[in-house]
Queue: 3 jobs
Job 1
Amino acid sequence: MLSFITVEELNRRIQSPGGVFILDVRSASDYLEWHIEDYGVESVNIAGSILQKGIPEGQLPKNREIVVVCAKGKSAQEVTHFLKGKGYAVVYLQGGMEAWSEFYRKVQVTSSAALEMLQVIRPAKGCLSYFLYSQGEALVVDPARHIEEYLELAKAKGVQIRHILDTHLHADHISGGHALSVRTGGKYWIAASEMQGGEIPFEALTDGLVLKFGESSLEVLAIPTPGHTPGSTSFLVNGKFLLSGDTVFVSGLGRPDLGGKAREWAKMLYETVIQRINKLSDDVIVLPAHYSDFREVSKAGYIGATLGELRATNELVRGGEESVFTEAVAGQTGAATPPNYETIVKINRGEVSVGDEEATELEIGPNRCAVKHLA
């Protein structure tokens, strides 16, 4: 009988001191496009068809368990059976990359009498959402469509979700904002400009809006930060945490070309950096909606960095001359767009509805929402 592991067990092994060895048997192009990465991962890509002809010398360890990964777990079973017959210690990942694409892990960002905040990480997509709570009341920012993740957190923490916010209209994954609002009775908030032509009810985010939750009267200030999309919004929590959506990343800034107006929106993004972001202090912690590399994980375990750290390492975050900034940002656009982004945008506006199976297919693949550091 073949042995398998779940995505939860794979994550545990990845985070363990010994790490994990992964044999990805998808095509080379699929592997280069998107594969499992982390500090605890050693990975090799050998297509199943190549393995059947003969195992490349020195590619696979004899003294270490191998986890075989494919798209949905079927091809991996065939390879596992083949390698087991050759004497290798081997298991396959149940559900393959499709299952990995729907796995989440939670990391504590801060814990105090006034505020508890968890970062909900979806490692396969590089998507980040946030669960904040105080004195029995909770707020969720940028929830993914698997809303059970947040409902289970609320139950475990004994809190009521009062507000659900999307920093912008997401293009690479389906938002759980509206669905979570329906399930909990909490208000769903997003900028009105993001939902033009949409069918989903929402509360409009406006500059200077303050949302309070908990007896501590914790304040969340909405700061419109156009650039990635015209209605992109960031949230300043307690004057210390900037939930920056896709405006400021640990690795760079949000790409302004998804609306087909790269140069125009790059100038808007410049104004965001100069007029809004640069007025915040160096010790403000930036917590984005996406990450593109596992090396963006901080020493504390979450994806984020202080503005001071970003300003020291990223020329774009400092702003600089407008013409140089605009040329640099617009010049780096044109890269591959998020898979199926036009359909996903329509779903997130409520113009189109799909079932779970189609939603899974639409979301498979990496995020491509960032403009990287200047070289």
Note: The chain has two domains: 4-100, 105-356+366-372.
Job 2
Amino acid sequence: MHFSLDDKLSLLREFAWLTDAYMIDFFVDNHWHKLPPCWQSSLDSIAPSDWPSLLDLDSAVHRLLPLSLLCARQCVRQMSFDRRPVKGVDEVGALCNLPPSSAPTEPWLSYAEELLNKSGHNRALPHELRVNTKPKKQHEIRRVAEVVVWLSDGLEKATNGEVSFQRAIDVGAGLGHLSRLLSIHGHDAGLQVQTIDADAAFVRRAQQLDAKLARMRQSSSEWSAPQRHTKWIRQGDTLIDVDDQLRSCLIGLHACGDLSSALLREFSTNESVVAVVSVGCCYHKLNGGRDKEHMQVWSESDDSLKEDSSGFPMSDAFRRLDVRLSFAARELACHAIEQYADRMHSDPLALKVHCYRAALEWLITRRFPDKRHEGLRSVKRAADMDFWQYAKLALDKRPDLQPALEAAESDPDCVAAVNGLLVHWPRVVSFYCLRTMLAPLIESVILTDRVICLSELGHSATLVPLFDARVSPRNLALIAYKTNS
């Protein structure tokens, strides 16, 4: 079944009351009674352990649920991008309408197959590139590096040599794990590798790891260390000097918030940038993230990309439709639906923390109505303690809020009221799951806006599920290229 953009936006508008809700306000704003009555009665019969199968949108439902809920679930599944990972660069090429690689390619192993039994590291990477790199990051960088090298070859073949790139630039490179691997993979192809990061400490540490890799490989002729640059990217900045004619591919592996949008703008406006591989994240930080309700204080140093940066929407089509997504909805798009389902399956009681935090918010606002969504201490293993133990730890560094807890503990009526809230923790989990079920659709809408934006400018753009979503939830890579010089 084919759904139009209007269908997707209509569904999101229909459930804005759900996507725009904050879990922290479950009791303060009485979220449960916003659900249709038939949903309330049906969900009250569902145990938290039943939710993993319901969150697996590809699985059949073996419970009696309201037809409207089943329809919503099926529509989200049909309207969202496929998150099942591709199996190799040839499949990426087919999706991107580029020819197969010149060199023979091996299908990618699944994440479980990649791991070495003893160490848990990726068997496809040499030992020196597994050091100081978590298995999740190894999974990601190996695939991105192969895609970039393949893209250089495929683009040149598709355009009969008219368009190709000789340089890959990793933006937001952090400690440089991807760029080190890419400098090795792209060495034979003569690919230069550069990085840009705003944090000078990260850049220095990346250079130290480069030197360590050079010593481990014992031969500098096998690779060239990436050129690393420190640069704070502000609205309107260019990443590449306009006089620099070396053709480039921009890479953003989980570039945060508006940084992903900035990469796409650089690609569309800079003639020397002929390709981009962008995996976004932190969608709630789009447009500076300054539309969060009850925001208390903003760091004055976080002024790199202001609200007028238009991180969303980017396309003329979305602007004409006046498409808007709230901070809460964009934050929901970052949720890891597969990982959450796994957590529910392995330890559903651990999710009581959602109820604890919502009950604590109710207590705080009861005493201090103007104190909403305050930052509190994160409490580990909260489900192993009672609410009052959790609350004391959560407020440990907030003496200004502690009177709310002290007053509640000494008031028998308040204690009884809190206990009356806590028995409804399965409802809190159900409401959380309902919101999480919509997360793939919201992410799909955000990424559709980016694809349409590039298409409006005449560029080929494709979304590819590059990683295993259970390991790397933000697994959709936007791959775009220019087909003329």
Note: The chain has two domains: 5-79+338-437, 89-330+439-481.
Job 3
Amino acid sequence: MSTGQQNLSHLNQSDSNRFAYSFLPGLLFIALIWLIHALAYLTGADLAWLGIMPRSFLGLVGVFLSPLIHADLKHLLSNTFPLLMLSGLILFLHQWRGVRVLVLVYILSGLLTWFIGRHAYHIGASGVVYGMAGFLLFRGVFDRDRGSLAIAFAVLFLYSGLFYGLFPEEERVSWEGHLAGLVAGLVAALIYGKTAKPASDGVDKTLVQASVTQRHMSSTFIPYYLHYTVNYTVQQDKHSPGEINYTITQDSFPGSAPTKSGYTASLNSKKTPPQPYDSRRAK
């Protein structure tokens, strides 16, 4: 039988794997845009016509294709690292909800650029980058918890230079696409904000996982020379004491021996009555 510390180590390893895999979609997307840029460079093809042409019906194609097209190597390099980092953070922190955030930012930033942009082809994934940065920033402001605020300040610190791109300084820079991306991030933060907690009807249930428990020795439940693991659920009622049900799992037996009935006990450090151990139940 594995101990609680081993289970906790397994959970930490699982979180580490999930963190690494969160960056895989962004890495694949970056590989795709680098492949397209390399092919365009080798063949001399001009793919700018696949960008967004504002208020043109055919220009709507660019909503889906413009993030894949970049003007030059500098343009591509400036978007590569933010795409990888921001998409990985969103997917790790928000999992499947993060997928919906990325899809919304991708499409909405393009549509807004189509509405407000100048009459020129707008290309590049900068709008998506601004959208992801905006989502993390506004989400931290709206949630106001320590974790979200820390992420928001990190984004503000690392990518503060991005916000200079919101102003029309250079003719070849699509500041409209940047602004559209930031607005898309704001909309995503509003739509996929913190979900309201369901009403608990006066009952607060806390599940203590077996993975964070440790082995114990006691002569109260089982022979003193045997180790056992206690898995328990604590259900606390605001108006009456909680009910504590124990399930005993020994290292020496493959099964578990739950107590015959739950005991009513105060959660303020009062001891529960001892339960006699029947070794036949664990075999």
Note: Confidence is low (pLDDT under 50) at residues 196-214, 259-272.
